[in-house]
Amino acid sequence: MSEALDLIQWAAFALSLMAAWLVASSKERRRNIGFWVFLLSNIAWTVWGMHTSAYALIALQICLAALNVRGLNKTK
After folding, report:
1. What is the number of other CB atoms lying within 10 angstroms of the CB of residue 58?
2. What is the distance between the alpha carbons of residues 74 and 76, in angstroms, rounded to a whole number?
3. What are the helix (H) ranges across 24-75?
4. CB 7 within 8 A of CB 44
5. Which residue among 22, 68, 72, 73 sits deepest, i.e. has the most Cβ atoms within 10 Å of its Cβ?
């Protein structure tokens, strides 16, 4: 179980990169999808942060999730 949780950081890493690429798009639909992918990465980073007791990372992900929700609202 611990090894599976350790792998979450790599999924979170990949999701974060994909989301940044999508958010940088000039197309509104891709930007919108990017914010959703960022939210998935926030969840993945939070799960990994809980597993490793990385409380600053968890706090950061909560703040970034709030900014991603704001971004979602602005893409509408």
Report:
1. 18
2. 5
3. 28-52, 55-74
4. no
5. 68
Which of 1, 41, 46, 2 is CA-nearest to residue 23? 41
What are the tens digits of pLDDT across the range 37-72?
A: 999 999 999 999 999 999 999 999 999 999 999 999
Both structure tokens of 59: 């706090």
Q: What distances in angstroms separate CA 8 from CA 3, 22, 37, one per listed residue?
A: 9, 21, 15
Give CA angle at 49 (72, 64), nearest 5°: 20
The residue ranges of every structural domain in the chain are 2-74
pTM for the full predicted model: 0.91
DSSP 24: T
**Would you state the structure tokens that stand for residue 11, as one six-digit string?**
């999924």
Spacing of C-alpha 45 from chain mean position: 7
